[in-house]
């Protein structure tokens, strides 16, 4: 068991709505990263948070935003949902630096109708 | 920017046969390389990684991968697969000093048959 938990596991939204996904990181990990995995694709890096500050962002528009809390848990918010936002959203926690080892949760599957 | 190519989307193989999953990367700067595995209904798990040192790295369950800088490859191999190896395998890279921001390939579904 990785220790990273995500909620909700599944959800359905309609175009234009907003969604918040939550992640509890593994104990002792101070860095949280979010990835989007569309069907049949590999995970794509959305952004990373380290000590409550954004620490790098992938090629995603500003309507994708995040937060990290003092206990290192995190939220991913997506505004103005589009059909192409339908995907599995993965949270991964890690220690800072270049360890290369990310601990992934099982993901939140978002369907936008 | 770096990229990863996994040419084989699916690889069927019989149990106890050898297997190779191919991974090629592109980057103008030095990178770290990883293989992650996703078993059915589970999250991604790190299988093995190359950061520095010996170019041949091994996992605890018999997989190995070799970093080949000249061919920009990091192929994953196992001499004898088991049914329990059935999973999706993702190759990934990150920039050295990049702080665990990974770029993944599209994945290879390994299906081991009896």
Structure description:
The complex is a heterodimer of chains A (113) and B (114). Chain A is mainly β. Chain A contains no helices and 11 strands. Chain A has strands at 5-7, 10-13, 19-24, 31-37, 44-50, 53-57, 64-68, 74-78, 87-94, 103-104, 108-112. In chain A, the strands form 2 sheets. In chain A, strands 2, 4, 5, 6, 9, 10 and 11 form a 7-stranded mixed β-sheet that branches. Chain A has a 4-stranded antiparallel β-sheet with strand order 1-3-8-7, with no helix packed on it. Chain B has strands at 3-5, 10-14, 19-21, 24-26, 31-38, 45-50, 56-58, 64-68, 73-78, 87-95, 103-104, 108-113. Chain B is mostly beta strands and 114 residues long. The termini of chain B are far apart. Classes of the chains: A mainly beta (113), B mainly beta (114). The A-B interface holds A 2, 4, 31, 33, 35, 40-45, 48, 50, 55-56, 58, 90, 92, 94, 96-102, 104-107 and B 4, 6, 32, 34, 41-46, 49, 51, 90, 92, 94, 96-107.
Q: In percent, how helical is the residue content of chain B?
A: under 10%
Largest sheet of chain B: 6 strands, mixed
- Quote the distance from N terminus to C terminus of chain A: 33 Å
The number of helical runs of chain A is: 0
Strand/helix succession of chain B:
EEEEEEEEEEEE
Helix and strand succession of chain A? EEEEEEEEEEE
What is the C-alpha radius of gyration of chain B, as a whole number of Å?
14 Å
- Largest interface in this structure: A-B, 30 and 27 residues
Strands of chain A, count: 11
Mean pLDDT of chain A, rounded to whole units?
Answer: 93
Report strand % of chain A: over 45%
Write the layout of secondary structure elements.
The complex is a heterodimer of chains A (113) and B (114).
Chain A: E1 5-7, E2 10-13, E3 19-24, E4 31-37, E5 44-50, E6 53-57, E7 64-68, E8 74-78, E9 87-94, E10 103-104, E11 108-112
Parallel strand pairs in A: 2-11
Antiparallel strand pairs in A: 1-3, 3-8, 4-5, 4-9, 5-6, 7-8, 9-10, 9-11
Chain B: E1 3-5, E2 10-14, E3 19-21, E4 24-26, E5 31-38, E6 45-50, E7 56-58, E8 64-68, E9 73-78, E10 87-95, E11 103-104, E12 108-113
Parallel strand pairs in B: 2-12
Antiparallel strand pairs in B: 1-4, 3-9, 5-6, 5-10, 7-8, 8-9, 10-11, 10-12
């Amino acid at each position: 068991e990785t220790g990273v938990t995500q909620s909700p596991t599944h959800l359905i939204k309609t175009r234009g709505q907003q969604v918040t996904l939550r992640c509890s990181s593994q104990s002792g990990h101070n860095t949280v990263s979010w990835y989007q995995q569309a069907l049949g694709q590999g995970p794509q890096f959305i952004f990373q948070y380290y000590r409550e500050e954004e620490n790098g962002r992938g090629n995603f528009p500003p309507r994708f935003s995040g937060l990290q809390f003092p206990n290192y848990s995190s939220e991913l918010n997506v505004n103005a949902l589009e059909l192409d936002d339908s995907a599995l959203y993965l949270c991964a926690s890690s220690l800072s630096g270049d360890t290369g080892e990310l601990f992934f949760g099982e993901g939140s599957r978002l369907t936008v109708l | 920017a770096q990229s990863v190519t996994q040419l084989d989307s699916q690889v069927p193989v019989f149990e106890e046969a050898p297997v190779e999953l191919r991974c090629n990367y592109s980057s103008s700067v030095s990178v770290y390389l990883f293989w992650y595995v996703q078993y059915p209904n589970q999250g991604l798990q790190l299988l093995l990684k190359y950061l520095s040192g010996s170019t041949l790295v091994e996992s605890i369950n018999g997989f190995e991968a070799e970093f080949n800088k000249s061919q920009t490859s990091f192929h994953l191999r196992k001499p004898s697969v088991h049914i329990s190896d059935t999973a999706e395998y993702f190759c990934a890279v990150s920039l050295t000093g990049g702080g665990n921001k990974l770029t993944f390939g599209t994945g290879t579904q390994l299906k081991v048959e009896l």
